[in-house]
Amino acid sequence: MATHGAGAACLTLSALVVAFCWFFYLTGSNVIWTLVCLNIFIVLLSLWLRRLRQRDCGTERRVCVLVLGDVGRSPRMQYHCLSLSKHGYYVSFVGFLDTKPHQDLLRQEKIRIAPITEVKGAQVGPKILTYVTKVIFQSLQLLYVLLRMELQSHILMQNPPGLPSIAVAWLVCILRGSRLIIDWHNYGYTIMALNHGQRHPVVQLAKWYEHFFGPMATHNLCVTNAMKDDLQKNWVLKCCRATTLYDRPASIFRETPLKLQHELFMRLANAYPQFQHSSSENVRVERTIFSVRDLDDNTVTLRAERPALLLSSTSWTEDEDFSILLTALEEYEGFINGGALLPSLVCVITGKGPQKEHYRKLIDSLHLEHVKICTPWLEAEDYPVLLASADLGVCLHKSSSGLDLPMKVVDMFGCCLPVCAIHFSCLHELVKHEENGLIFKDSHELAEQFKSLLSDFPSSDGRLGLFRRNLRASRGQSWDDNWNQNVLPLITAP
Questions:
Q1: Which domains are assigned to the chain?
Q2: What is the pTM of this model?
Q3: Which part of the chain is the Glycosyl transferase family domain (predicted)?
């Protein structure tokens, strides 16, 4: 009612001003057109703002989830969408549609993907011009998409990347009376510093930008307690405005039957020779290098002489140094050549990203007999099955800020897959050394961990089996329960 009354008053006042200006126009005044144009602008702006803020009975049940990245490779934001839809909210999921999201999200009638395109700046001139024009064009595109939507009660956005999405989302919330929630996965400026260095002007600008706009959110979610503490101590956020929402595995990340594992191995064997088994004269048996299926009774078993399946997933970015893993695999090869009784390895590295071709060239330059490496891209439905089929996971994510946790390890733990993870300051919030995995600092330590964990493979009596049993016994709160406890009250608050 207040908005309606203010709009009516503004229109009445504007009409009076127009009449007054028209009188002066008839008398020949030279300033009249300036006043007329100004008045018309005020009227149109008032009408536009009133329309932007016009609520209906469904406004409080609509939420925009925003990520300035590939929605298919933004699992946490996909989980937000699914959780919102389960509680009856209609979700507009805004982001780049480069990779197909999970099927569960595509099947939800209450979730609508609003695709945006990644804008490229000016392709001529200095790099700073390219960067500035990219930010400007991306801002205009986001403004266009967000302002054309039906009025949303909240905008829930991921950071990073936050430039320019934080400022644009904040402006839209101001214009439309929505509330802004930022889900802090990391700090964007610390990621930029990996390329440019801490003192680079663009990095300093990005740091100021996040510090300036971050506190303007209605609420903030953090992936670790360490990040929550840092936000509160160094970013002038009040305690009540930051909540830790730990990543939890979605229900699709779980142990899977051997039959599903074998079916995936067969599909991968069609494309990757590392999964293929030499032909057999027995036509009643279907084989991969890991599994055997008896076609007579349809039973599936794992081969006793199979190699160990090592799995790592990555976005192929600067905060993951895969030369550490490659050096460790070379050292592991040396252990076998030196007479150690260890299994052969198939190392699968999944993901897409800017440094993938660089590392593929390094992989192709290796000449390993007992270690095979492949780098497939998996559909969203196949990735959890591969995790559940692996014997050991490896995580090389080294947080640029030291304050976030690798979601890939969360997914591995959901499948009861033990991990070897590279050390950084708050990793202990997720990986418990000698309980659900091991923490290493360099390639030599990682190679020694491979040797120790796989020395009695494929027996389940050793440390690898112990870690897996500990993971089964320590299953924590599910994503849904965690989300309902920490996020739902923020969305439903008046």
A1: 59-245 (3.40.50.2000), 307-474 (3.40.50.2000)
A2: 0.81
A3: 304-456
